[in-house]
Amino acid sequence: MTWTVVLSLCAMGVVGGFAAGLLGIGGGMILVPFMTMVFTSLAFPSHLVVHMAIATGLATIVFTSISSVRAHHMQGGVLWPVVKLFTPGILVGSWLGPWVAQQLNSTMLALCFGIFVFVAATQMLINAKPPAKYQLPGTAGMFAAGGVIGLVAGLVGAGGGFISIPFMTWCNVRIQNAVATSAALGFPIALAGTLANIYYGLGETALPTYSLGYIYLPALGVIAAASMVMAPIGARTAHRLPVAKLKKIFAMMLYALAIYMLWQARSLAN
After folding, report:
1. Number of helices (H) and strands (E), helices first, in the chain?
2. 88 burial class (0-12, 13-18, 19+ CB within 10 angstroms)?
3. Which pLDDT value is given to residue 171?
4. CA pair distance 123, 199, nearest whole angstrom
5. How far is 159 from 153, CA to CA, in rounded Å?
6. What span, in angstroms and rounded, lies between the C-alpha atoms of 147 and 94?
7. I need a surface site. Which of 44, 93, 98, 183 has the fewest CB within 10 A?
């Protein structure tokens, strides 16, 4: 990698880590489109670019979530009993997500990612908060909810916050606790998804040098280092600044990234 690429990856880690700590979203939705650009510029095989971007983005959340959740825990925001109930389903869903992704070609995967990010950006922009009508379900219900969160997160390389936060808010969990708890859920999502992407990618013969399954290790190292520094700053910012205004900025960024991924899907289809 050239120094230009290294600096670009470092900048991605800074933005992704800050967003992960601030919004509890894991940062993958911001990282994946940029990594798609970088991997394309490095002439990676076109049928692997999106898969590798999603897998590498998901792997960075393993490190980001540790740093982010520590900061949220210091603020007393993480509901650990809720994390415990979600985790079994999340582990199953996060393992299946990369398997589903492997069944899709790059065009469909880029299309799915673009649509998901577009919906997430809209949710962030309008600051959608479902009315708190219910309580968190029992063990079976939490397993099912965790499975859905993990499946979608593993498929698109995200931390699952855009599903888990509204779900918890809907179930009478305070938004601050929902964000902090979502940050903690990022670790099992990322760990299971990362192991799955390594496993499912081992048989791929066209992977670039320094890849571990679908994960490109040099990009992972640079982004993880930068994001681990910024995630605690984002978490502290969530308790100090008007997050609603910052959400609008990130929403506009996500719209741009969603449009790029939809354009990428169109390009790959041709």
Report:
1. 10, 2
2. middle
3. 87
4. 33
5. 6
6. 7
7. 44
Q: Give the Cβ contact number of residue 269 at 10 Å.
A: 12
pLDDT, tens digit, for every residue of 37-86? 899 999 999 889 999 999 998 998 888 778 778 877 877 788 999 999 99
Q: How far apart are CA 222 and CA 224, in angstroms?
A: 6
Distance, in Å, from the CA atom of 122 to the CA atom of 251, rounded to the nearest integer, reads 7
Tell me how far apart the alpha carbons of residues 10 and 20 are, in angstroms, rounded to a whole number: 15
Q: How far apart are CA 254 and CA 93, in angstroms?
A: 24
Which two three-digit tokens encode residue 142? 């939490």
**In the numeric block, which tokens belong to residue 128?**
């959608």
The residue whose two tokens read 């825990």 is: 73
Do residues 78 and 184 lie in contact, with contact meaning Cβ atoms separated by under 8 Å? Answer: yes
- C-alpha–C-alpha distance, residues 49 and 58, integer Å: 14
- Specify which residues 140 forms β-bridges with: none
Neighbours of 14 (CB within 10 A): 16
To the nearest 5 percent, what fractions of the chain are helix, strand and coil? 80, 0, 20
pLDDT of 129 above 70: no
Residue position matching structure tokens 């855009």: 162
The Cβ-side half-sphere exposure at 163, using a 13 Å CA radius, reads 22
> Residue 229 CB: number of other CB atoms within 10 A?
14
How many C-beta neighbours within 10 Å does residue 138 have?
9
Helix (H) or strand (E) holding 211: strand 211-212
Alpha-carbon distance of 32 to 52, in angstroms, equals 9
Q: In whole angstroms, what separates CA 26 from the centre of its chain?
A: 4
Q: Report the percent of the chain where pLDDT is more than 70.
A: 93
Distances (CA, A) of 15 to 49, 69, 159: 21, 17, 15
Query: Do 94 and 219 contact (CB within 8 A), yes or no?
Result: no
